[in-house]
Write a structure and sequence with these properties.
9 helices, 9-stranded mixed β-sheet, single chain, D-Maltodextrin-Binding Protein, domain 2, alpha/beta, two-stranded parallel ribbon, 22% strand, 2 domains
Length: 302
Amino acid sequence: MKKRNRITVLAFVLLCTWVIAACSSTKADESEKDESNQETNQKTEPIMVVGSSALQPLVEATAQQYTIKNPGAVINVQGGGSGTGLSKISEDAVDIGNSDIFAEEKEGVDASNLVDHKVAVVGMAPVSHPETGVTDISSEDLIAIFTGDITNWKELGGNDQEIIVINRAKGSGTRATFEAFALDGKQPIDAQEQDSSGTVRKIVSETPGAISYLAFSYFDQTTTALKVNGVTPNRENVESNEWKIWAYQHMYTNGEATGLSKELIDYILSDEIQETLLPEMDYLPVTGMQVERDAQGTVTKK
């Protein structure tokens, strides 16, 4: 009888020990879960990145990779043009403003509080419908097309086809870069204007005789990227400044970058992105440039 009582007491003690251990384990799990939820909640505070359509594909791809590795991060990326990016970030209405131009170049924007993060370089080139019969053009003839002095491709040795000029909208950094370094500061004729590079590419590819300009990252087989003065628009020629139609890709913050904005900018500047994603998408690392260009357009050798 005494033996049976001892067994009963021992079983009771073991049961109590198991219950206490289980409760402790549950509390520990709940504590870890709470900490995990707090970390996730911290990272789910969304950020808004707005501006340059030339930089948009790279930022979207980088954000996608970042959020795969950091599931709590929420990064919204929109285009709208460099003017929009600079205006919005100067108003502190977004977290990051993307731009193809320096903030100092944008009229009405106070650049004093903005911090510039140069994350890449992008080359830009004139592009035409693939059936114009022209693949190389002089800088003088290019200016003549966009200022309306040349109106038919046959004047350039191409097909007897009216030239249809397509412009980016005013406020576009791509347009500002093209006007400054391809048109030598000349103003193009009034023509159809489009807000996004993707739309420009589609229209040029579908409109016989059309010409416009795009960042290298938008090149594909649907349009023809024109040589200028015999120089091919490619990475090597941009890095040496033999191809002069290029721009830094800026990610501006209002004050020093913090939180998820800083994490995204640091990630896009990491070797993982700079050495793999940039060349895959036809962007150039700033570190590969043999020259530097300032906000006034002055170029100096490194």
